[in-house]
Amino acid sequence: MATDYKAMMADIGKQTAVLKKDIPDTMSNFYAMAGAADKAGALDPKTKEYVALGIAIAIRCEPCIAFHTRSLVKMGVTREEFEEVLGTAIYMGGGPAVMYAAHAMEAFEQLAI
């Protein structure tokens, strides 16, 4: 695989900055929703990131995979924990999930450095 996940996230960051400027109400409300959804409650934030990563794999969103992988790395996810999440995503998504779990593994290897 040849995806540079750090570069991908930087590129997306530049474009979301444009969106924040051009459609501030939409973007501020999106980030408010994300903050509310990520806040600790019955589930801790790390568990919520696992869910988000599984969904990102299921819907085949590589930038989402990168950003949620980065969040998990910052939260101290171990390789073993990460791979178990990928295993659950594969179980639920079949063959296509295997392909995107491979992308997630590459993102993890790039971002865990």
UniProtKB/TrEMBL annotation:
Origin: domain of life: Bacteria
Keywords, ordered alphabetically: Oxidoreductase, Peroxidase
A family per Pfam: CMD
A molecular function (GO) term: peroxiredoxin activity
Transport as UniProt keyword: no
InterPro entries assigned: AhpD-like (IPR029032), AhpD_core (IPR004675), CMD-like (IPR003779)
Classification via NCBIfam families: ahpD_dom
Carboxymuconolactone decarboxylase-like domain residues: 24-106
Protein name: AhpD family alkylhydroperoxidase
Keyword Oxidoreductase among UniProt keywords: yes
Organism from which the protein derives: Martelella mediterranea
